[in-house]
Amino acid sequence: MITGLEETQVPLVGRYHSSMEPDIPSDEQDTRNGTFSPPRKRSKNGCLTCKIRKKRCDEIRPTCGDCTRLKKPCEWLDPNMPEDEARQLKLKMEKLEAENKTRKRRKMVKTLETKDDNMINDNEQMDALEKLVFRPFTFPESVSEQFSPLTDDGDALPLDSDSLPNNSNINENYSFPKVEPTLGRQPLQSLALDLKANLGTFSPLSCQSPFSGLAFLKKIEDVRDDKIQELNNDNNNEAAKEEYMNNLFEGNLSPTLPQTPSFLKLTNLRYLDGTGLQLYQYYRDKLARIISVVPEEENLYLKIFLPMAEQDLGILYGIIAWSGFHVGNEFYENQGLHFIKKALNHINENPIDVGGNNNVTRELFDSRLATYLILCSAEICSGDVKKWSYYLSCGAKMISSQGINSFNSSKHRHWLVTNFAYHDILTSSINERGMHFDIRDYEQIINLNTFGLDPLHGISKPLFHIIGEINNLAMESKSALIGELGDDLSVNLSKIVAAASILERKIDSSKPSPHDLTSFTKMKYIELQLTLFETFQLTCKLHLRHSVLRQNPNSLEIRLLVRELMKRLDVVLDTSVEGCLCFPLFIAGMNCPTESDRQLLLGKFKEFNKRYRYGNVERAGIVMEQVWMIDPTGDKCVDWYEVVKKLNWDLSFA
Fold it and tell me: What positions does the domain Zn(2)-C6 fungal-type occupy (predicted)?
């Protein structure tokens, strides 16, 4: 081994919402226009593209209406065409259509297999409803319509005034259309502009909305980009919106199931419509696993935050906003903005006085702190460089009001404070403001083994408080270098060098807790965790030399450390533990001196971001490339904290 909140005004752009209507049977009333439509059949004379897609064709030649709208090649079978040529054309179009779909639609499974409702006797009805009670996503259409995520004018709907429901465990054995992040974020691009020009381009102060400046982070780039652009240009095109949503969610958007009022009264999920439920499931089945570096049974994003969301609407809305930002594209990002606003409304409508004597229950106190932490994470995911820090400060005030050491009383409270510490340590503004709490308090909390692993630190938690100590020493080093030459400066610099030597020995002697290693049953996972530990050891060594001792990337020692760190990154990237690698990748990038090393690191950064899909990773890449432009040969030690400051960002590496 290597040794009371003000509501944030957020304009909602792209004001449209998904159509939640199921397919309209031909022999029933057309609910869109209130008229009865006779059964319609597909024409045999339609274009080949519509036939393969199993859609009705309007038979307009040379390009039918659907192919024009969806920008698809429109091919027609000529009756006089040779059979072999027709077969080849059909195979070609089928292959092209298959390539344009990232997933195949699955056949819908009927919840209750009946031929006629009248044939079900009373006992069977009771049995069926009893089963549905324990399937959380059996959701009636009426509720979906009542709680549409966006109204026509983009305003938030009022919350139900009923009291919050009692806690109830969620049975995970259910099926609901899955959300997949189909739209990758824009790959990092080389910045050819100078630093001053880029400051104007990327500064959030130049944007009307704190979120509108993130457009460059989230360009649409996959095969369905044309559909999204069409939706943005024509908000009234309900058919296109419905088809895009169906493709994204593998079919039916709002399944028509028997109403189960008994279930709807059990959890806060009753406040969500179809899109909200899909984003909730996306958090549970994908997002919470992406950000965790520990096994599922230790994943507190699932074990603690999800049950808390059943009791508190602020947590629930925050989780759904987080998912919306992570899924990407304008529609879901707007959903994220909308649910952030709903979470803030919930906080404002239910204020608590953390410093007063108003008998705030511990349950309510912890839920409010969890809400701030989740909103902080959601904003970081969106690429925000301002608001996340404000939510973290709100959390700091709450923790301070009860004393940081009081959060070691239970596993879920310990998780809240370790989550806070992780985000407080991995921030660029720490070089200006310092940490919210003393690093010795963080060391005591993070290294506590009573409650096992947490999903952010994993077995590397002994090294995170060292990162905090390096950050503090970097501030002292920066202040000392500003001073004039003299005896005082010599004394100060000697103290800093001595402190750096102590930190170096701490890094070398750090070891993962044997108690933490017992959480892993397979040797391959233990080896992966140990390599992750070594990755953070090397990151600490580089961070210490760059930020405190001011060594330049071309120094022999730093070049050797970068090489070793690259080897570890090759092992842990694209694995279950890569969720915490933003900071190691960034530190490695700061210390790459040659063009070949930089291109190699940039490639790793891009591939990581395609999988991880976090806006702050994009921002970190921008800062990294800015540093390279300032120091093209690796002969300078660039103060990257100053680069972030000039960009007017408060950047998180969490």
Answer: 46-76
From 74, 99, 124, the end of a domain falls on 99
Give the whole-angstrom CA distance, residue 70 versus residue 227.
7
Q: Is the pTM of this model over 0.85?
A: no
Q: Which residues have CB under 8 Å from 203's CB, separation 6+? A: 213, 647, 648
Residue 413: inside a domain, yes or no? no
Establish if 509 belongs to a structural domain. Answer: yes
Counted domains in the chain: 2
- Cis before 62 (ω within 30): yes
Residue 535, exposed/middle/buried by CB under 10 A (0-12, 13-18, 19+)? buried
Structure tokens at 8: 């944030």
Domain containing 474 equals 443-654
Q: Tell me which residue has tokens 């630190």.
A: 457
pLDDT along the chain (654 residues), means of 10: 44 32 34 42 75 85 85 84 82 78 44 38 39 32 32 33 33 38 39 35 31 30 36 43 44 36 65 91 94 92 94 96 93 95 95 74 94 98 94 95 90 95 91 86 84 90 94 90 68 91 96 88 89 97 96 95 96 95 96 95 94 94 95 93 92 93
- Asked if the structure places residue 352 within a domain, the reply is no
Q: Are 386 and 618 in contact (CB under 8 A)?
A: no
